[in-house]
Write a structure and sequence with these properties.
Order of helices and strands: HHHHHH
Radius of gyration: 24 Å
Structural class: mainly alpha
Strand content: under 5%
Mean pLDDT: 76
Number of strands: 0
């Protein structure tokens, strides 16, 4: 089984832990038996509202980080399982065309979500690429097509950008965008190919 990319997962988890415990150093300590004035009461109320707002934002960030970590991991899990079963040494395929199509759909969904949540920069020609996405074809059969998909996925997963999250490299970010775009196009093509292969198999 192909290894995961631990640096990204570890850093995302550390970020998640930090967000899970927001600092309370700014909260005001009230003196016992004191009678706050009307102005102080309003100030405490505003501070309480701000604290609640900050806590909600922290929770939202934590959820976003956990979703990002899970998507990055699940992208690899789904792909690894599909590839291992498709290219096993067993005399007969260990995965059906329907299961492959289901895995491809999951990979596509995760790739689209990662593309959005990572806020990757758009490519200069992305508009034209998206318009012609439905016309994209690959002159390959199913197995070679899956290997192309695996190559694009691993290029994205092993992107050095994820090893050093605090350093933004425009070139690496564009590479990640290109890889995810290719993953989406390949999954669209391969899903259609599995559907056509299924139709042919059922007609025999």
């Amino acid at each position: 089984m192909r290894r995961f990319a631990p640096p990204l997962l570890a850093q995302l988890f550390c970020i998640s832990l930090m967000l899970a415990f927001p600092s309370s150093s700014t909260s005001q300590i009230r003196k016992p038996n004191s009678v706050p004035s009307e102005m102080q009461t309003r100030e405490w109320a505003l501070e309480s509202l701000q604290h609640d707002k900050d806590s909600n934002l922290s929770r939202e960030r934590l959820v976003a980080q956990l979703e990002l970590r899970d998507d990055f991991r699940n992208l690899q899990i789904v792909n690894n399982d599909m590839m291992a079963r498709r290219f096993s040494n067993a005399p007969t395929p260990q995965i059906t065309l329907k299961e492959i199509r289901s895995s491809l759909s999951r990979i596509r969904t995760i790739a689209k979500r990662l593309s959005t949540n990572l806020a990757l920069p758009p490519l200069e020609t992305e508009g034209e690429e998206l318009k012609s996405a439905t016309l994209t074809t690959y002159n390959v059969a199913l197995s070679p097509g899956l290997l192309l998909l695996d190559k694009s996925l691993m290029s994205f997963i092993e992107n050095p950008m994820f090893q050093q999250l605090r350093v933004f490299d425009p070139e690496l970010a564009l590479r990640a965008r290109r890889d995810l775009n290719e993953v989406v196009r390949l999954t669209d093509f391969l899903r259609q190919l599995t559907k056509e292969n299924q139709t042919v198999a059922e007609a025999r």
